Amino acid sequence: MMPILRPVLVRVLASLALLCAAAGAHATPHVILVQNSGWMEPFYSDPQSPFKPLVGALAGAVVQPGEALVLASFNQSLPGAPSPKALLSLKAEGDTVRRRVNAALAGLDTARKPNSTALTDTDLGEAVQAAMKVALAGKPGIVWLVTNNRNSPNNDQATAARNREFYALIHRGAAIDRVVAFPLRMPVQGRHYRANGLMVYAFAVGPEGGRALDALLASGRIARVITERPARLKPLDRDTVRLVPVQVEAAPGVAFSQAPGGALRADVDPDARTPRASVRWNLENTIYPYTIASATLGARSVLAGEARAIALASSRVNGLAPGQPLPLGSTMQLPVAQLPDKWSLAALKSAGSAYVLPGRIELHLAQQRLVLSQAFRERMAALFPGDPLPEIFTPPATIQASNAVLPLEVRVHYGMGPLAALGGLAAALLAAAAAGAWAYGRPRVAQVTVEDELRTMRGRPGTVQPVYDKAGTQVALLKTTLFGHQLLDLREGAQVRLGR
What is the pTM of this model? Predict the structure, then answer.
């Protein structure tokens, strides 16, 4: 269901697009949605509730200077009571984000239905779609959803079914690239309800949003506020495992090592004919909170457009829990036919350094079956008692395969010998050319006898000079070449000859 938005709300939310344009090409816009429906009553009414300070601290941690932020409350949109409702729109400068968010949240309380004392209901999907389509205007960014996870539009008590619709939006929404969730322990007691926990979702919209969320997670800025390990909801079909090289037994002519950033580096001698290695890996499950119950493994290396299968010691994985390593042996051979010959232009350009061929190692998990880890089930049951969340976290049946990629860097070390040999040859050719030019340009001396008179004439190769008798009449032509002289056009009866 699309949200009902008044024009003023559309203008406030759409102002994020202008903020994004001013923030620069690499800035990531953020939308923080804070639930204020009836089920959230204890988070607002408990005087000891850390709910609002948490939102302010999270905004201050994730929104960096130059980035745009829209803060909005949400429940369920009704005529006369739109949802989401914008509370704040800004471009971050300095360390003011946390203070301004706290100020905007200070007066926020649970909302009531129009012309009624009844507290509002909740529509999680409506809020997320409004953030993506209106606030972000269909552009990349990150949407943060702070909720008690009770999805009950129109006071629908079938929250399990509504939550399944919400998770269908997560898994089937093409615009959503990545989703993580942070289940937090937050016991609060209100006038009407009590609650044990809160859920913070991060929706990365578009590939750029996905990269920005990955960078945030890696930077540790989120962990300064939320120490709970993020639970991945999407994607579940890529980067589900990580390959970590533990030991490498290289063959003659090749040495393997681990490059900065975790890539595998191979230093290859240009004369190596069978560069291969036996590599022992640790295969690690990176998709908390899921256990890889079973899967079939396959691997290959891709280099310079050529793919080669990697022989694995085992082609099955069973019961691999999150963060748990699984020893895995393999034999890998590099495609030497794709390596430049030491006399090639690429090799000569790299003489004295390394010629680098980027590649990758691909690991494919087929017939993949994921199950929610028991520890996560127990934690969710404690935070959200009575809610069917563990079943909702179960991945879609359509996701039965995944891929993982490890960067591979092959460096071929070419010596200076071929370049020095070509340099010597070039020097010899230049010397020969210089000698030829000097020989060509040097004047040649010719002895010519005219009527018993010996004359000395000089000419450069390729020139033709007239020869005159004593009376001044032209009697011949003298042509000079690289190999000597010739008399041409001799006048009949003239007494002219070369030499004495």
Answer: 0.73
